[in-house]
Every structure is written in structure tokens, then in C-alpha cells.
From TrEMBL:
<feature type="transmembrane region" description="Helical">
    <location>
        <begin position="389"/>
        <end position="409"/>
    </location>
</feature>
<feature type="transmembrane region" description="Helical">
    <location>
        <begin position="6"/>
        <end position="25"/>
    </location>
</feature>
<feature type="transmembrane region" description="Helical">
    <location>
        <begin position="421"/>
        <end position="437"/>
    </location>
</feature>
<feature type="region of interest" description="Disordered">
    <location>
        <begin position="230"/>
        <end position="265"/>
    </location>
</feature>
<protein>
    <recommendedName>
        <fullName>Permease</fullName>
    </recommendedName>
</protein>
<feature type="transmembrane region" description="Helical">
    <location>
        <begin position="506"/>
        <end position="524"/>
    </location>
</feature>
<feature type="transmembrane region" description="Helical">
    <location>
        <begin position="66"/>
        <end position="83"/>
    </location>
</feature>
<feature type="transmembrane region" description="Helical">
    <location>
        <begin position="104"/>
        <end position="123"/>
    </location>
</feature>
<feature type="transmembrane region" description="Helical">
    <location>
        <begin position="188"/>
        <end position="207"/>
    </location>
</feature>
<feature type="transmembrane region" description="Helical">
    <location>
        <begin position="329"/>
        <end position="348"/>
    </location>
</feature>
<feature type="transmembrane region" description="Helical">
    <location>
        <begin position="475"/>
        <end position="494"/>
    </location>
</feature>
<feature type="transmembrane region" description="Helical">
    <location>
        <begin position="37"/>
        <end position="60"/>
    </location>
</feature>
<keyword id="KW-0472">Membrane</keyword>
<keyword id="KW-0812">Transmembrane</keyword>
<feature type="transmembrane region" description="Helical">
    <location>
        <begin position="360"/>
        <end position="383"/>
    </location>
</feature>
<keyword id="KW-1133">Transmembrane helix</keyword>
<feature type="transmembrane region" description="Helical">
    <location>
        <begin position="296"/>
        <end position="314"/>
    </location>
</feature>
Length: 525
């Protein structure tokens, strides 16, 4: 079906090109995205009021879609803050040091754990689980925060989600649109995802290894301090930047203050050291109790999340408990984090536990929005191209369908593809990548699937092969690896790195893998 392109389509396309060029120049793309949003809405509606309103509405719609990611980052960050105050975070990761003793071993463990959890349950619950338990260990073992984020994104949002071999939602959508069997798409997508992921991981390892450092507990303290400075957290009250939360709290000062002491302090000291009345040091007793509490929480957190994984498996493979969907699983991860936060705060500060809990939650929310807030106006621009979100952004009535600006552009491009197996395959890959620009890895699957079914016989390529290639492009882009306004924000949040930097670093390894996998698909399948 021929698509009539309007001025709004061309303005939107120009906005995409400007944003991509700005990213290539390693500049922030918030301003270009906001300006492109305004111009697209103005051109589409012919009303400056709609154009101005679209700037706000686009960010609002994006916030509604992405707030679950922000909230889970906030809750898990708040939980980790309470555990740091206890000193339980370092005890919690101690057992993993036996395996994750250096950068290479940490790299492999992170990759394997993230892939397995994401393959069975999607990356939604996998990222906070890995973020809460394994990321601190990897940092202590010498990996850079950026390389940690790259490994998790490539193995979770990329390699596991692009095949979706266990849950099979993505292959089902692609196959139904292409008119082929879902298992045929799933099998080929699994092979291609391993090629893309393996290539991207190898390049990541070779490029990032030179940035790794010798294992040291100071690396974890430095990482936490840098993040605390970034969110304005001064609660640590130490000259290293507020990151002292991972160290044990200082012992209470005697009455009279740390200097001077006065008569009361002198009397108390004399009583404690009097040889005729040996009384246990109350500070030592308090320290012993604190360490016991910290050890209990260090065991509780991994056990709680392990129990959750077991529950997920029971729901997936048995009928003992009802199965959980991705959103439900993420909600439970956040709920567990909240309860642990309350318990840890109560153990640390029994009298002021209500205020302490609130402080941790506020710190978590501030961190999530300070680190990821710039994603909202960017995502808002790309949401205009999706008919599901364009209506609310452009002020169109809920009863009327919104314009499919991005999909119209993609459909127009495909009509000009030459009839050649290689060119068609790379064209489907490109269309998948462009369709993924809206930040949703699945929204473009019906388009690439339908094109695969139509173009496959004409170029003598199995439609299931083309559908699998299109699925790779859709999900590796929009699923959360090379597009910053997607679930990649969750990975960046837990690794505590700028999401735009993470997307840029992932781009070349992933694109190399996608090119290699497409060539493999045409030659072998």
C-alpha cells in the first residue's frame, strides 16, 4: 500500500537525522529532541499551541511509560543505601569474590547469570537482581562501571530478549506477520542472537579490558562515593565525597564530644578501665551487635531474591503457583526491595526509622531522576512516530487514531529496496533498527514480519530467515542496548553510568555483530 508522506513526515525524519548526528558528535541530544518535537507537532497540526503543548505532553507520555523503570531503580537504590549504612553490602558480596576474583572472571559470571535469568524471565527482573547482588562484586573485582553496564545490556536486553526463545512472544509476533511457523523463526533467531551477542561481548572484552584495574575494596568505595556525589548525597559526612556508607558507622562519641571530653567523659573512661570492676565495653558490644545484624541482612537479601527466582521457575514450568508476566515480576522485585529497606532502616536506627526510611527513598528517587531524567524528552520525540502514543502527544481525541509517522517512513523505504538477497536482508535489518528507534523492541515486529513474508519469495530467501533478521534489528535497537531512551536506562541506573555514554559504547560492538549475523543468515539459512 502506497503511503502519502506529508510535511510532518519530512520534519520528523530531519529530526531523527539531526539527533543521530548530534549523538555521533558525542553531544547531548535533549535540545534537538525537544526542538524536533515542537516542529513536528507544529507542522502536523498547523497550530503553535499544539506545538508548545506537545513539548510537555511528549515528556509526560514518556514518563508514564518509563516510570516503572525509574521506580524500581529508586527502590533498589534506596535498599542498597540502607544496607550500606549497616555495612551489609560488603558482607553480601563477599561469597562471590571466590569466583569473581578479577575482571575476566567477573565478566564471564555477569554475562552468564544475566543471560540465563533474562532468557527465562525477560530482562525486567534480571537487571535489578544482578544490579543488587553482582554489580558491586564486579566493581570490586576491577571491572569499570561502563563495561559492567555493557555486559548486562548485551546479554540481557540484547542476546536473551532478541531470541526470546523460552517465552516466545517476539518470534510469535514475527511469525504471525510473516505467515510462517513461530518455531522456525525462534530457532533461527536463537542462532543469530548468539552470533550478535558473542561478537559484541568479544569486542567489549577486548576494548574495555584496558580500563580495568586491580581488584580492591577501595574500588567499591570509590564507585559508591562517585554516585553519591552525583546525586548530591552528603549523608556520608566524610571528605571522600559521601561514599562512606559502605564502611561501618563510626562509634558513638562519649559525652562531651570528640575533643575535650569534660569531666563526664573522664569519669566514664575511668569506670570502663578500672581494674577492680571489669565491665564489658559498650562500644564493643554495640559493634558486635551491628556486625551480627549486617551479617543477617547480607544473607537475607540473596536468599530473598533466590526464593523469588525459584517462584518464577515454579510458575514457568509447573502449575504449583500462577506464572508471572514481566511487569508483575518487576513489581515483586521492587516490593522485596522496599520491605528489606524498611527492615534494614529499622535495624540501623530504631528510634528514627520512619525518617531514615523516607530519606533513603528520597535519595533513590533523586538518583533515578538525576541520572535518567534526560531520557524523557528524547523518548517523547520518538513516541510521536508511534501511533499508540502520538494521539495523546498531539492532543488528538482518544477515539481517533494517531499518525504512524515513523512506520510510514519505514514502509516507504522498503518499496525502494532492490530485489537481491543480501540487499533485501540488510534492508530488513535496517528497517528493524529504524523501527526500534521508538524505544520499544516489539512495536516494529509486525512491520518487519509482514515485509519478510512479502519479500522473501521474491528474492528466494526463507521468510522465517528475514523475519529473524528483522527481529534482531528491532530488539537490539529498541529492546535496550543501543537506544538510550529504552530499558537501557535501568542498566545505566544500576551501573551508575550516563545512559547516553552506555548506548554509544554499545553501538559499534552490536552493529558489528548484527552485520556478521545477517551475512551468516543469508549464506547458511
Amino acid at each position: 500500500m502506497d503511503v502519502q508522506l506529508t510535511a510532518a513526515h519530512w520534519v520528523y525524519l530531519a529530526g531523527i537525522l539531526v539527533i543521530l548526528a548530534t549523538m555521533a558528535l558525542r553531544k547531548n541530544i535533549v535540545v534537538p529532541a525537544v526542538v524536533a518535537t515542537f516542529l513536528t507537532a507544529l507542522t502536523f497540526s498547523g497550530s503553535i499551541v499544539t506545538g508548545l503543548s506537545a513539548i510537555f505532553n511528549a515528556s509526560l507520555v514518556a514518563a508514564k511509560e518509563l516510570f516503572n523503570i525509574f521506580l524500581i531503580i529508586a527502590m533498589v537504590t534506596a535498599m542498597l543505601g540502607a544496607l550500606r549504612q549497616l555495612g551489609a553490602d560488603r558482607m553480601m558480596v563477599a561469597p562471590f569474590r571466590r569466583v569473581m576474583r578479577a575482571g575476566t572472571s567477573s565478566f564471564l559470571v555477569l554475562a552468564a547469570v544475566t543471560y540465563v535469568i533474562s532468557l527465562f524471565f525477560w530482562p525486567t527482573p534480571a537487571v535489578p537482581l544482578v544490579g543488587a547482588v553482582l554489580i558491586p562484586v564486579a566493581i570490586r573485582a576491577g571491572m569499570s562501571p561502563l563495561s559492567v553496564g555493557m555486559v548486562i545490556a548485551i546479554c540481557g536486553q540484547g542476546m536473551a530478549l532478541s531470541s526470546d526463545y523460552i517465552i516466545k512472544v517476539a518470534p510469535g509476533i514475527s511469525a504471525s506477520a510473516a505467515g510462517v511457523e513461530a518455531d522456525a523463526v525462534a530457532d533461527k533467531a536463537m542462532v543469530l542472537s548468539l552470533i550478535v551477542g558473542g561478537t559484541a561481548l568479544l569486542i567489549t572484552y577486548l576494548v574495555q579490558k584496558r580500563h580495568w584495574r586491580a581488584p580492591s575494596p577501595d574500588l567499591l568505595v570509590e564507585w559508591e562515593a562517585a554516585a553519591d556525589r552525583g546525586i548530591g548525597d552528603t549523608r556520608g559526612d566524610d571528605s571522600s565525597g559521601g561514599g562512606g556508607g559502605s564502611r561501618p558507622p563510626r562509634r558513638p562519641e562519649p559525652a562531651g564530644g570528640p575533643s575535650g571530653g569534660g569531666e563526664q567523659a573522664a569519669t566514664a573512661t575511668a569506670v570502663l578501665v578500672a581494674p577492680s570492676d571489669p565491665i564489658a565495653d559498650p562500644d564493643a558490644e554495640a559493634e558486635k551487635e551491628r556486625r551480627g545484624t549486617a551479617k543477617a541482612f547480607a544473607m537475607l537479601v540473596p536468599l530473598a531474591y533466590l526464593a523469588f527466582i525459584v517462584y518464577l521457575m515454579l510458575g514457568k514450568f509447573t502449575e504449583v503457583v500462577p506464572p508471572l508476566q514481566g511487569g508483575d515480576a518487576a513489581a515483586i522485585v521492587g516490593g522485596i526491595a522496599a520491605l528489606i529497606l524498611f527492615a534494614a532502616a529499622a535495624s540501623t536506627d530504631r528510634g528514627g526509622f520512619l525518617e531514615t526510611t523516607s530519606d533513603h527513598l528520597v535519595d533513590g528517587l533523586v538518583f533515578a531522576f538525576k541520572a535518567m531524567g534526560c531520557v524523557l524528552p528524547i523518548a517523547g520525540f520518538f513516541f510521536i512516530g508511534n501511533p499508540e502514543f502520538a494521539g495523546p502527544i498531539l492532543g488528538i481525541s482518544a477515539d481517533a487514531a494517531g499518525p504512524a509517522i515513523l512506520f510510514d517512513l519505514v514502509t516507504t523505504v522498503q518499496s525502494h529496496l532492490p530485489q537481491n538477497a543480501f540487499i533485501t536482508s540488510f534492508g530488513i535489518l535496517l528497517i528493524g533498527l529504524v523501527a526500534g528507534l521508538d524505544g520499544s523492541g516489539f512495536s516494529g515486529l509486525p512491520l518487519t514480519g509482514a515485509l519478510s513474508g512479502a519479500l522473501g519469495p521474491a528474492v528466494d530467501v526463507d521468510p522465517s530467515t528475514l523475519a529473524a533478521i528483522g527481529q534482531m534489528g528491532n530488539i537490539w535497537a529498541g529492546g535496550g542496548v543501543i537506544i538510550a531512551w529504552s530499558s537501557l536506562v535501568a542498566v545505566a541506573g544500576f551501573a551508575r553510568v550516563p545512559v547516553l555514554d552506555l548506548a554509544r559504547k554499545c553501538f559499534l560492538p552490536v552493529m558489528a555483530g548484527l552485520i556478521l549475523s545477517t551475512v551468516f543468515a543469508v549464506l547458511v539459512f
